[in-house]
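Give me the fold.
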Amino acid sequence: MFQCDIREFGAVGDGVTLCTESIQRAIDAAGEHGGRVILTEGRYLTGMLRMCSGVELHLESDAVLLGSTNGYDFPEIDTEFWDTRYAPRFNRRCMIYGEGLRDIAITGRGVIDCQGHAYVERIPDGWGMWTTRRNTTVSPARMVFFIGCENVLVEDVTMREPAAGWSYWVCDCSFVHFHRIKIVGALDYPNADGIHINCCRDVTVSDCFLQCGDDTIIVRAYTSPLKKPTPCERVAVTNCTLISHSSAIRIGWYNDWQMRNCVFSNLVMADCRCGISLVLPEVPVDPGKRGSDQGDTPTFVENLRFDNIVIDRCYTRPIIVDVGKTALLKEIRGLAFSGICSGSNLPPRFVGRPDKPLRDITLSDCRFDVSEQHTRSSDGSVLTRTSQPESPTFLYVDGLELNNTRFSVS
């Protein structure tokens, strides 16, 4: 295998010298042959890097790829490969980028430190469970962003402090594998999401530890940036720990397209605002108020399976499926939940619409314990969510099946 040590291209691992150009030269050289770019002992400061087909970016255990604290070191992506007008949050900056590539990988037991503290500031009262807010719009909104790529592997790497942006966004990619990775983010950072899987096919997320201030795993079919509508399908998430101050798993958002045939199993969730969320929010009817990642396609969700999941310290609902009145919707059907054991402040909620009922909802061998919950944020303050006792909600559901499922309210 052709190998490139970034130090041979001028990179200095002192954590101060900006090494973007040196690392990029190593990636380009490996791209000519297909091979491995190696980061060894040191802290290598960088701005945006562009991956090449056939390249493995390998971080050895004593190596740190250090994101710059100057947002201008991450220039806006200029491309015709996708429609950049519809970049989420209207932000086209990222740390590691690849478009239309094959056979790419980020591996090794080293660390990608995004230095997210530089892009947030404390706020006195907080917002929900967050005690910080973004202090600039000039920041990398996605740490790793691959679009239109095939055969993608991210393995063993630890990512720290995603910079008030998403840790990974894979969009319109196929054969993607996240294996044994860690995301260690501050729980009080907003928009510091984990793994966004958008309009992808044949994706696995396995044996991972994900701690994020925002949603940890997201499955969407936001099609506006793409040349044509593309479904998100055949996603398998298994054997993971998910810690979040938002949703541990989130399915869909504003007018996403098709999401189908996905499995989520053997998971532990903790300290989350919501365990499993499939909420289609109200869509602004005023074109001038269009959301930054708002689609234009009716949503269709089919055949999602959630099995053997523990949800500990959930501060609203362990499961919520809710359809907004103005959301474009074709149908939601075939949702199955089995072996769910949760402790939450509110019970599950399943609400369709009179014109679009949820279809074929099954809960088997589940236990939902509802009581007052407490936790601590990363700054040590106590967060408490209290509510009046409430019954589980099933409204506008066609084909509901409850098997050996218990709801306990105290």
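The first helix runs from residue 20 to 33.
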